[in-house]
Automatic annotation (TrEMBL):
The keyword Nucleotide-binding applies. The chain crosses the membrane at residues 68-88, 158-184, 260-282. It is found in: Cell membrane. This is ABC transporter ATP-binding protein. PANTHER family: ATP-BINDING CASSETTE SUB-FAMILY B (PTHR24221), ATP-BINDING CASSETTE SUB-FAMILY B MEMBER 6 (PTHR24221:SF654). SUPFAM superfamilies: ABC transporter transmembrane region, P-loop containing nucleoside triphosphate hydrolases.
Length: 610
């Protein structure tokens, strides 16, 4: 057995035993048992065949009939056991598979989901490692583990059969066959290593192909049809997919040629061994028992050359290594800061959240979205943030929530740098409707209580936020009320309108606030609301946000003007800061934007006067 292969097998075996001990040990044991039984058949068959002429002739040296019957009985018993093991193996490998698939799922998703920031999810290096760990196209860890028992069993067969050949016939033949097998498997392993290298070099294309697949199936099926893009999508998907795998196939084709050659060499070695046995038998130097045992043993060595097993185990190993490296890759490229636990986050912010000379550009981009921005959000204050599209408002929210770190400058919560706070605890303090809020394909209740899962059973609060957000009317109309699943692909599920969804998101944020969150962020909460819903929101806004530090982002001045303070974000900084009246009097950017919108409303609603 090639030394490299031993390492691969041991690595995967250790993993299998760790995540699915019972199933793994049982499959391995059964496969090895099968191999041992196979050798027992070889030995017993040899004995039976060798004894037959004597038993028929009934000569003086002949085996007593009683002993012969025992031999036959033994052979039969081995056959029976041998034919039972595959069925048991099926069950054992199902058990192993269940454990392994669960462990792989956790092993890949956990390191990606655990970090409280999200930079790593936009890092192509991390995404590539993740793609390799998932191991499409036959590079799958579970498939490698599935082959492991057979590979191990074939090792046992190789060694055992070699011993039989050596003891029964000639050690040089045994040594030759083992040497050729090891050499060929080692070479086969090298070929697979190269294939894995090629595959690792192509994960980006494969990632893109999977993205397109999800786009068509899940993320944007409606838009694709409206714009007639489905044909384009299919072509792009097939194109990217093929491009991603073509180099792997090319490599496999080349490998196939070598594999044929390997097979040829193997055939020659086996042929030489069988001829040697035949010659010895012909010359009368090898008794029948030995001939009848050696020949099947030689054939068994031939079958023990398990190129497919080696390849699958090696491919599985590539996925295993990627999965093993994933947490370290993330930790290395996106280190989590060491946090001090001495701050009482549960009451933060008691005074204020202060952005201090905060600059930011997204990872991999040179464009500075925020530049030396100073901004203070006082506790118990409703602050509105306005600015043109792309000004950086949502980015500021992401920094506030700790999804990204400032490139330079600090965000201080009651004087403590956000970087020093336990981010998970801080994020529980922040209730937010982000601009692209989540629409869970779950019940209305779940969609709301996800704002603070620890208070999931709190029906009073649920009823309260339903009133405050205006979803009580919506829920009343739904076929199963609060239990209606908000996704049409589920039985009895419905889809909500954009504005209704927005109210659900609002209810979720309010649920979090009533559960004790100290910061409320509303990024475009009114964008999809009709005029009346907007008016209601505005009316309640100050009431909803009393007692928390709130930040509202909106392009609608009806919403903005109610805030205690308004800040204008432009060129990456706060350029204006004051109440609605103060900013109008200042006659700057805010006043300009306000007048433009007001004018439109006037000309839109009173065309006669215009
Ligand atoms: N994940 C990202 N990676 C790189 N650049 C990004 C990313 N998200 C946003 N940007 C860029 O950052 C800038 C600010 O975007 P942001 O979403 O903060 O604007 P905004 O003020 O919220 O705009 P809007 O009013 O349209 O919501 C834009 O130029 C945008 O292209
Ligand atoms: Mg935005």
């Amino acid at each position: 057995m090639g030394a490299v292969t031993v390492g691969w097998v041991l690595t995967l075996l250790r993993y299998g035993v760790r995540v699915a001990p019972g199933g793994t040990l049982l499959t391995m044991g059964l496969a090895v048992l099968g191999s041992v039984l196979g050798m027992a058949v070889t030995l017993l068959t040899g004995q039976v065949v060798g004894a037959v002429p004597g038993v028929i002739d009934g000569g003086p040296d002949a085996m007593p009939i009683g002993e012969f019957s025992w031999l036959l009985g033994g052979l039969l018993a081995v056959f029976v056991i041998d034919s039972l093991t595959p069925a048991l193996h099926q069950v054992a490998s199902l058990v192993m598979d269940a454990g392994v698939v669960r462990a792989i799922g956790t092993g890949i998703t956990q390191p990606l989901l655990e970090p409280r920031r999200i930079e790593h999810l936009e890092d192509s290096e991390v995404l590539d490692v993740q793609e390799r760990a998932k191991g499409q196209g036959g590079f799958h860890l579970a498939q490698g583990l599935g082959q492991l028992p057979w590979l191990i069993a074939s090792r046992v067969t190789l060694v055992g059969s070699a011993v039989i050949v050596g003891a029964m016939f000639a050690w040089w033949v045994a040594a030759m066959l083992v040497a050729v097998t090891i050499l060929l498997e080692w070479y086969g392993g090298r070929l697979i290593e190269r294939e894995v290298d090629v595959w690792w070099g192509n994960t980006e294309e494969q990632r893109r192909a999977h993205y397109l697949f999800n786009l068509g199936m899940r993320d944007a099926p409606k838009e694709l049809r409206v714009f007639g893009l489905h044909k384009w999508l299919v072509e792009r998907y097939v194109g990217d997919w093929t491009a991603g795998y073509r180099p792997v196939w090319a490599r496999r084709k080349r490998n196939a040629k070598w594999s044929l050659l390997i097979g040829g060499v193997h055939l020659i070695a086996n042929g030489v061994a069988i001829l040697a046995v035949g010659r010895a038998a012909y010359n009368g130097t090898l008794p029948l028992t030995q001939v009848a045992t050696t020949l099947p043993a030689i054939l068994a060595i031939g079958q023990a050359n398990n190129g497919y097993g080696v390849a699958q185990v090696r491919r599985g190993l590539s996925a295993y290594r990627a999965m093993r490296d994933l947490p370290a890759t993330i930790a290395e490229r996106h280190p989590e800061p060491v946090v001090s636990t001495k701050h009482r986050i549960e009451t933060m912010p008691a005074r204020e959240i202060r952005f201090e000379k905060v600059s930011f550009h997204y990872p991999g981009s040179d464009l500075a979205v925020l530049r030396d921005l100073d901004l203070t959000i006082r506790a118990h204050e409703a602050l509105a943030l306005v600015g043109v599209n792309g000004a950086g408002k949502s980015t500021l929210v992401k920094l506030l929530g700790g999804a990204y770190r400032p490139t330079s400058g600090r965000i201080l919560v009651d004087g403590v740098d956000l970087a020093d706070l336990d981010l998970a605890a801080w994020q529980r303090r922040v209730a937010a409707i982000v601009q692209d809020f989540l629409r869970f394909p779950l019940s209305v209740t779940d969609n709301v209580v996800f704002g603070a899962v620890e208070r999931a059973g709190d029906e009073l609060t649920l009823a309260r936020v339903a009133r405050e957000s205006g979803i009580d009317d919506v829920v009343r109309r739904l076929p199963k009320g609060w239990d209606t699943v908000l996704d049409k692909t589920f039985d009895g599920g419905v889809d909500l309108s954009g504005g209704e969804w927005q109210r659900v998101a609002l209810a979720r944020a309010l649920f979090a606030v009533h559960a004790g969150a100290g910061v409320l962020v509303l990024d475009e909460p009114a964008a999809a609301l009709d005029v009346r819903a907007e008016a209601e929101l505005v009316e309640r806004y100050l009431e909803l946000t009393s007692g928390v530090a709130s930040l509202i982002i909106s392009h609608r001045f009806s919403v903005v003007r109610n805030a205690d303070r308004i800040c204008v974000l432009s060129d990456g900084r706060i350029v204006e800061d004051g109440t609605h009246e103060e900013l109008l009097a200042h006659d700057g950017e805010y006043a300009g934007m306000f007048r433009l919108q007001a004018e439109r409303y006037v000309t839109g609603t009173e065309p006669v006067d215009a």
